Amino acid sequence: MPARIAHLSDVHFGAEDAKCVAGTVAWLQEQRPDLVIVSGDFTQRARRAQFRAAAAWLERLRADGHRILAVPGNHDVPLYDVARRFAAPLRRYKRYISNDLCPWFEDEHVAVLGINTARSLTFRDGRINRDQMALIEARFGAVAAEKTRILVTHHPLYAMPIGEGNELSEAVGRHEAAAQAVSRAGVHIALAGHFHRTYAAAARRMTDTAGGALVIQSGTSTSVRLRNAELQSFNWLHVHRNDDIELQVVAWNGAAFQRGSHVRFAYADGVWTSRTVADGDLALLPVPGRSYLGGARLAMTSRATKPWAPAGLSPRNIWTWKSRGRGLAFIRRARIAPNPRRPGRSASASVDEPSAAGSGAASARLLRFSTNQS
Fold it and tell me: Where in the chain is the domain with CATH 3.60.21.10?
């Protein structure tokens, strides 16, 4: 049996969507993962009430029998309380979330280490220090060779094309030395969040010294702070072996979390390759005339995909998936409107490019998976 891991991030209590919060509880209760990982930013501004809300959510998950591994994010360090920010930056995190800033989980299949990258001296960016690098090598160095080694941070260790406009994101401070430590430690999967963007690619695409790690980013799982118009989402991993990993994005459709893109990664001869496992369905009957984060169909094929809508409705900037060159694109938010010209038929206009028709026009928003050899 593979290890089944749910990877959530950037829940941002204080800026949360209550329906999404309840949706995570319901989905996890139904699926029963072996481990729930939350890679930071539990709060919006590190206030007591926000930490209490986050702690109540975690307690609900624990009451359902879930094992949880968590690390803090930069939003879990006080921003405006300057004295607390520098004197006791993670005191509230330790009180309400976890006193362990380098949590460890190990079973017969996986070994998982969390590392804190949040710092007082940087408002947004993260850092990793030499002691943490040594810890990564020491902990994973004692792990049996057949187990999958998973590293969890809030800030990505590598620069990736997931910034605004898909420019390169910021990597953690000392990222070159960190990449070398991760390579020496034999890390197979590096999980992170921070940018509210979903992404997966081999670390070798980002730096020559990265080793054989597969980098997997989670979007924001429950907050209203969406980036590039991506849905709230989290990752569902099936770790068969350290060279055989399935990744599926679980996205919010306006009423519940549902499975979306599903990719299986294989590692051989120093290269990660991937293939589509099956279509997922994010379809939700939309309310006519309402802006909606739903109505999506996964179509991971090599040919362009037509937008989809239920009978009698036409898609206007709806979400859809298509294969785009070497990556997978998740294309923009929806405004569903009735098709007055042809009742019972859906329109077939492309959503691949910005439309000039009507106020619902918007630029394409992308969520990519690397599906090429890396």
Answer: 3-242
Q: Looking at domain 3-242, does it have CATH number 3.40.50.300?
A: no
pLDDT tens readout for residues 237-287: 999 999 999 999 999 999 999 998 899 999 999 999 999 986 544 433 232
The answer for residues whose C-beta is within 8 angstroms of residue 288's C-beta and 6 or more apart is: 313, 336, 337, 338
For residue 333, give the nearest of 257, 226, 256 by alpha carbon.
226
Residue given tokens 């055989």 in the structure block: 244
Residue 248: phi and psi, rounded to 5, are -130, 130
Q: Residues 286, 292, 339, 260: is their CA dihedral positive or negative?
A: negative
pLDDT exceeds cutoff 60 at 107: yes
Q: Is the pTM of this model over 0.85?
A: no
- 177 falls in which pLDDT band (50, 70, 90)? confident
Whole-Å CA distances, 206 to 68, 176, 238, 316? 29, 11, 24, 36
CA pair distance 359, 337, nearest whole angstrom: 12
Look over the chain and give the mean of its residue pLDDT values, rounded to a whole number. Answer: 74
- Please report, for the chain, how many H helices and E strands are present, in that order: 6, 21
How far is residue 298 CA from its own chain's centroid? 18
pLDDT at position 169 = 58
pLDDT at 9 over 80: yes
3-state percent helix, strand, coil for the chain, nearest multiple of 5: 20, 30, 50
Torsion angle defined by CA atoms of residues 125, 126, 129 and 131, in that order, rounded to the nearest 10 degrees: 170
- Report strand pairing: 3-8 vs 233-241: antiparallel
